[in-house]
Amino acid sequence: EIQSVVSKFGTDDDNDPISNPLSTLLEIAYNDAIVHVPVDRAYRLSRYRAGDAAIKPRLSRVKGEAWSKAKNKVEVNTLQMAQDVLALYATRETLKRSPFDPSVEGKVKAFGETFGYEPTPDQYKCFEAVENDMVWRTRPMDRLVCGDVGFGKTEVALRALFRCVANGRQAALLAPTGVLAAQHTKNVLQRMGEESGFDYNIAVLRGGMGKNTKAGRQLREEIASGKVDLVVGTHALLSKGLQFKDLGLLVVDEEQRFGVKQKERLKLICNGVDVLTLTATPIPRTLQMSLSGIRDTSTIRSPPPMRKPTLSIVQEYNEDVVKHAIELELQRGGQCYYVVPRIAQLDEAEAMISKLFPDGDVRVIQAHGRMARGAAEENVASFAEGNYDILLATTVIENGVDIPSVNTILIQNAQAFGMSTLYQLRGRVGRSSLQGFAYFLHKEEAITEQSAMRLQAMADLHELGSGFDVANRDLEIRGAGSLLGTEQSGMAAKVGFDLYMRMLKKSIRQLRGLDLPMVPRTNVLLPDGEGSIEVSAGPDDTDNAFKIPKSYIPDHEERLKEEGAARLAESTTQLVDLTNLWKETYGPLPSSLQSKLKTLHLHACTRQLGIDLVGLDDMGDGQLDCVLRSPGLRLRHWANICKSLPRGVPTKGLDVVFPARFSVTREEFEIKGGKKINLEALAARSNFGDDDDEEWDALDQEEVEAMKEISSAVNVKNLEEVDLEQYPRFVIKNLGAVKVGSRVDILLKALLPASKVVYENQQSDKEKARVAAELREKREMMKKVKKENDAVARRRLGSLD
């Protein structure tokens, strides 16, 4: 038997798993050959997407250099682009504003308890991300919240708005339509208006309330004086005559509905103001900015309980289908939407419905944007009260209409709508536990290639929480467009959008000497609240918030400003400079303040090193080690940091542990503090060696996912809730044996050298990026001037002839 097996070695009949192991392969057809790729290398493949490419791509050849040349061109382009991105990072970090007061978070928590539903897990993450942006950062917030229709984006916005007004600043909520503004006003008044118990002054600014009208003039005066706490409005909020006394937050709902001019106006209004943008389907450019990391993004994918996916039916227009769909909904006691693309088609559609139901027992009401002021909102409200069976409308109902009894929508001439509009319209139904139905009825003769792709996407992407996927498909159909105002679509078309974004991220990583991600705050869980600066969450909790004594800085506003500046100092150097300024301005520091400042120095270090969680871990035999979790830490980061430390040796007493999944041996590995690092040996053992042949780090997506967990660290009560072995972490041995009151000193001594290296590297990277971007801008300007001068010279020569 053995001889029989051996005799088949190397032949087609060899089935031995050792001599002829089987593996699953992907077969890729090139123009001149077929290539097989093992599935464990599939991460090196990316789907080609470039919807705005003028010419459909031809298949590359295995032989020849056409693909390599195309990639090299794109690589040069992405390096230039990366410089611009990093310059934007640096510019954004220079923007400063006073953070919101953490002591107000108790009120925000009480407001959150008035929400009638249990928030979903993704909503909790959004709440924390927005709190971190507003309370724990000095640069203004610019966050995009992408969530499916009906998934709770509005609640994220309401809590942010409440935080702003509870801090004594004004807030504004901008909506694209009067119907949506009316819906928001109703919600805001219920939750924080005069009858809610919070008693904030809420106002509405809409079309028809211009500065020359009595009502418009009076409201503008109240906003300018600060009498109005929160204003809800449509495009009227963007008018030039509107002045706020102290605008702290602007929430933009459905940002894809605003045009370029309105967004330019928004930039002027929002200079130094926190901005929270809500959307279910971000436009391609916004999505591209979020994917490249230029814009902070939170995604709500978890659906509310009992919610069912809406069934999508894509079909050629047929009156029998319309009649059947309406009859089914009315038989179960529900209501219907019927949507047409143009106002002129409404009467025709109403006549068609009357013909289908001649007995007159189907009640129809219209809503569109050219009705008398307030009439569309009144008709929608009457329909919501159950006075009518069918709401016949244009896209005016695309946003803000939330009627649980409506669970069927029919969209006539669906090929004429954009993907975002189709998705939003479908989201108007299925907002209860009942099954929702969406009929996309199209004219066969009017179908184009792109409209067919849009309708196919609506049929494919019908699961709950697919808004981000719809936006991605839209990106594929329409193309990437431009990023940072620079046309990039040609380069994206050469290699496809996915690979282009991978190459851009790789270029950014190359330009940043140390890309260790910072965290906005650190949850320190040492006994007796030592090292913590968190505000008490309830009456039984200890308040460890940093406070300056009133006797040291008597003025309340000035004291809050200085507390915020100290609490969020980026480095220990900044803290030292700040305290020196205090000494010059207010006199010697009180002893109670000096001890608190040590804790702030510790937090400046932990934020720089990406440490989001600190606590004592029982190692047995009574030994308590201090574990400092750093989810974004990678071997390349620690290797670069250690190179800049004295003698190139890690700080004594500070060990670093990397989880098993980062090791080729699938075992944890530890780097001891105080000992010289053998980088070559570690690189061979780690999955993070510098392999220039690798186009993409296979664990890059894992890094992204790990960083999403950071925001949840604030709710951790003890280390037992966290699987520490899954994360990179610093370890300081036997810190539990150190007496209470001295642990912060030990931690600070261990972390300070490494955090200084990180801060200095980051400042150097920012400066290099800024200088490079300035040089490039000057070169572009010189090219433009030369081109204009050449054109003038040619015209002169032409006139002489």
Structural key phrases:
7-stranded parallel beta sheet; 24 helices; 6-stranded parallel beta sheet; alpha/beta; 801 residues; 23 strands
Short synopsis of the structure:
The chain is of the alpha/beta class and 801 residues long. Mean pLDDT is 81; it is low at 476-489 and 688-699.
**Strand coverage percent:** 5-15%
Mean pLDDT: 81
Unreliable stretches covering 5 or more consecutive residues: 476-489, 688-699
By secondary-structure content and strand pairing, the structural class works out as: alpha/beta
Gross morphology is globular
Rg, Å, rounded? 30 Å
Q: How helix-rich are the residues, as a percent range?
A: 40-55%
Span between termini? 97 Å
Helical stretch tally:
24
Give the strand tally: 23
Biggest pleated-sheet summary: 7 strands, parallel
How is the largest sheet built, in terms of strand order? 5-6-4-7-8-3-9
Describe this entry's structure for a reader.
With 801 residues, the chain is of the alpha/beta class. The protein has 24 helices and 23 strands. A 7-stranded parallel β-sheet has the order 5-6-4-7-8-3-9, with helices on both faces. Strand 14, helix 13 (419-426) and strand 15 (437-442) form a beta-alpha-beta unit. The relative contact order is 0.09. Mean pLDDT is 81; it is low at 476-489 and 688-699.
